[in-house]
Amino acid sequence: MNIWFCRRPRRYVELKRKISIYVVLLVVICFSMLYRLDAYIMKPGSAYDVSKFVTVDSKGADSVGSLSLMTVAMQQATPFTYAWAKLQKYQKLMDIEQVRNPLEDDEEYNIRQLKLMSDSQFNAKYVAFQRAGLETKIQFNGVFILNVLDGGASDGILKAGDEIIEVDGQEITSQQMLVDLLTPKQLGDQVTIQFIRNEEQQQVTITLKEIPNTNEHRAGLGISYTESKSIQTNPKVTMKTEDIGGPSAGLMFTLEILDQLLDEDLTRGYAIAGTGEMLVDGSVGRIGGIDYKVIAADRDGMEIFFAPNDEISEDIKAKHPELESNYATAVKTAKEIGTKMTIVPVKTVDDAIDYLRQLQPE
C-alpha cells in the first residue's frame, strides 16, 4: 500500500504565522487599552455656566456675563493611557490611595463625592441668603453613612448612603446624639436602627462588634458618617448637579444664587470662573487640581478666575515644604500658559463680591 504525504504550501504557513502575530497584537492592544490599573489620571476639564444648574424661583438668570464652575477630568488609567500621560505636561498620574480612601470601594467613593456636592449646595444657599439679608430654615434629617467597614457590625446590613434616623426608638437629632447613645454600649449588645434607604424607611437589629482597624477595642456599628441637613429658602432654589461631585463648586454656586437674588448684575458683563469649597462661615476652602482648572478656564475663554487664597500652617509646611496655596499655584500656572485671564485671590465669598462690585461694566 502506498501512503502519500502532502506538505502544506509555504503560503499557507506564512498566512497562519501572520494571523498568529495579528491575534497576539490584537490581544496586546486590547489589554493596553482596556485593562484598568490602580491609578488615575487627572487633566483639565471644562467650564460650566452655573446658571444652567441653578434656578432661583421668580428670579432666574438675566446677567450679561457669566459665572462658571470649573471641573477636572478624572479617569482610571489603562497601560496605554498611563504611558501617554507620562509624556504629557498637564496630565497627572495619581495612585488610587490619592483619590480614594483605602477603606472605601468605588460605590462608597462616588457616594462620598455626591455628599460633598450636596453639602456644598447647602452651604452655598445658606451663605448666599445670609449675604442677601434673607432668612433660611435648616432641618436635621439624620446621620448619613459614608462607608461601612469590612468585618464591622454593620457589614452586609447597612450601606453607604443610608440615613440613620432612630436608635432604639429614640429620634436622632444630631450627630453627637448618635455618639452619646452608642458610647455606653458593650460588645455583643444589640441596637435597633431605623434608617432611610432610597426614600424608604427600614428597620434592622444589629449586634455591636469591635470597630475594625482601630486599637480602641470598643463596640460600635463599624461605620463612618456625617450629618445630613436640608435647607428651606424663600424664594426656592433648585440645583441640578447629578453629574458633578465634590465640594469645589461651592464658591461659584454661592455667587450665582446671590446674583439671581439681588437686583444687580454681579458679573458686570464678564466671563467669570472660579473654584473653592464654600464653608458655612463664608470662607473659601482649598481644593485640588487648581492648575488644571486654570488651564481649562483659559481654554474656555474665561476673563476672571477666583482662586482660594488659603493659608498653610507652619506645621504642614514643615512636613510638606513643597506645598503652596491654591492662589500661588494658580498664578504660577497662569504665567506658564501665558493667559491674559486675571487671577483673583479670595479668602471669603465677600472678597469675591467686593471685587466684582468694583469692576467697571464691560
Furnish the topology, listing elements before pairings:
Blueprint: H1 10-34, E1 39-49, E2 54-56, E3 66-76, H2 79-86, E4 92-95, H3 96-99, H4 106-131, E5 136-148, E6 163-167, E7 170-171, H5 175-182, E8 190-197, E9 200-207, E10 209-210, E11 219-220, E12 223-233, E13 237-239, H6 250-261, E14 271-274, E15 277-278, E16 284-285, H7 290-299, E17 304-308, H8 314-319, H9 326-337, E18 342-346, H10 349-357
Parallel strand pairs: 3-14, 14-17, 17-18
Antiparallel strand pairs: 1-3, 1-4, 2-13, 5-6, 5-12, 6-7, 6-8, 8-9, 10-11, 15-16
Helix pairs in contact: 4-6, 7-9
Question: How would you describe what is shown here?
Answer:
By secondary structure, the chain is an alpha+beta fold. It has two domains: 46-72 and 110-135 and 234-357, Ribosomal Protein S5, domain 2; 140-230, Roll (Pdz3 Domain). Helices cover 33% and strands 28% of the residues. It is built from ten helices and 18 strands. The chain has helices at residues 10-34, 79-86, 96-99, 106-131, 175-182, 250-261, 290-299, 314-319, 326-337, 349-357; strands at 39-49, 54-56, 66-76, 92-95, 136-148, 163-167, 170-171, 190-197, 200-207, 209-210, 219-220, 223-233, 237-239, 271-274, 277-278, 284-285, 304-308, 342-346. The protein has a six-stranded mixed sheet, sandwiched between helices. The termini are far apart. The active site is at residues 248, 293. This is endopeptidase La.
